[in-house]
Amino acid sequence: MFDRDVWQEIFNTIKKNKLRTFLTGFSVGWAIFILVMLLASVNGMQNGFYTQFNDDANNSIFVRSGVTSKAYGGFEADRRIQFKDDDIEYIKASFPKDIEYISGRYRASTTARYKSETGSYSVQAVAPDHQMIEKTLMMSGRYINEADYINKAKVAVIGRKVAEDLFKKEDPIGKFVEFNGLPFRVIGVFTDEGDDNAERVIYAPMTTYQRIYGNTNLLNSIALTYNPNYDLTEALEFSDRLEILMKRRHAVHPDDQAAIGVWNYAQAFDDISKFTAVLRFIGIGVGFLILIAGIVGIGNIMVFTIKERTKEIGIRKALGAKPSQIVNLVILESVFITAISGFVGLLFAWIILAIIGPTIQSPAFTNPNVSLGVVVTATIILIVAGVLAGLLPAMKAAKVKPIVALSDK
Amino acid sequence: MIEIKDLHKSYRMGSNSLHVLKGINFSVEDGELVAIMGSSGSGKSTLLNILGMLDGADSGEYNLDGVPIKDLNETKAAQYRNKFLGFIFQSFNLINYKTAAENVALPLYYQKVGRKERQDKSIAYLEKVGLKNWAHHLPSELSGGQKQRVAIARALAAEPKVLLADEPTGALDSKTSYEVMDLIQKINDEGNTILVVTHEPDIAEMCKRIVHLKDGVIVEDKKVEQVRAEQYV
Question: Which pLDDT does position A409 carry in this prediction?
């Protein structure tokens, strides 16, 4: 294989048919280029999804309530399910080992005023645990703590955008802001990567809001995180148990998703992984189909080359070349053309990705790249492709009869 | 060296069968220089192809240096050709992108001789045919006679038992033809067995024995007084 004579021959044929070799090689290089770009795009999409989701804790589960869609347990349909504080206690007591953080959520909208600035925002009334569940990042000040919660303190944690709107250049910490006329002291400002709307939210203690709305113990939804050591199966199994339990507690039909919905990040992660796996599969499929066109092209050029070299092959056979030596020569040439063109395509794709990849920072598409695995796979594909492209022409070459090749006097 | 008994060969041309060799009996001793003559269609080239293992016989026996040549697969035939035979063709059949030295070295390559030894040997054989100074020229830079001498050097390089020459002077003018024949005679003088297929009587006269083929049978087989080509050069 690493024989100088063999390479001399390969280079000679390539030199004789420069344009033809280039055009055929181009199709293979182009195919690999597209294959790598497609795979990199899928990677970029996956990265985008993951960064978006990583905003929240990966092990979080949201339980929300609604209106029953099915009659069940003696109740008619269209019954409103309402979570209360004791639901939280109940979950805590039922799953002492599974729960990491838990918080009720109560959503209200408010008109906030500070000096002459007013704005309309949504208030999320939560427990201190909620910071961990939502992974809220504090820019300044602090989050709601247990003391605020127990004392039903009128304190607020405001989003960066809220702070900009109301306080302009002032430091909001310690200032009083009016929510629907009631003064709340700002104790902290939080930020949220990427998403401006998430920064137009105000957090306040759950207990405070429940008192404002008439000493209720009502919740809109429950957010919690489970034991972070759980793997996907354990997480899904836990969220199933939670769903069954909550539905039983509120006499909801087990299949009634409208009444009680349990939304698990693990499930979403699983879905995204499956989705990107399908995309990747499609990418590889399309890349392969294009590559096949390239392989046929290489096969074609090899057939031509052999036709032109029939006489030479005949001479070689008369001088004692074995059929296997002829086959090796043709296949090596085919692999050589395929591999070189493929690597050029790979290199181009890699350069383009290295240049433009880091500059793309859209939420759904982050840092498209190719892993070493893709490069290794592409290399193997190329060599196999080269062998396949050369195989038929090589067999044809091996069948050349020296007598026929030499007879044209 | 060569022993042939009752050799038959026909070619299928569509639905017809063309009987080309109709029972050839013939043997060649070590060191002979035999001319095989005949008009076109007499079967002389077919005979040479069978002797050269480029084609198989339908029936009959063929022994080369005591080895029965029968039912060879391609690989075996390639090995035997490489080991036993050297070919000289009318159209030289040099590989046009290889230099004279590389062409001569080719059979050695297929004998798996090392690169250095191949180079030394090919230069030595080119020197023998008087083309040492042309060793690194491409065939396109050589005259017809020079090309044929390179081809002869290539045939000799593998040190075969028998040299088979198919119309070696067919593409050359008479002066160059005599030069080539002179070379062939000298190689024969050194003890090499050579078969020359030709239809030119003057070339045949330069061999030591003339075998006449007509319509697939040997009609005449006679020893002749060799005319030395040297005097015409």
Answer: 45
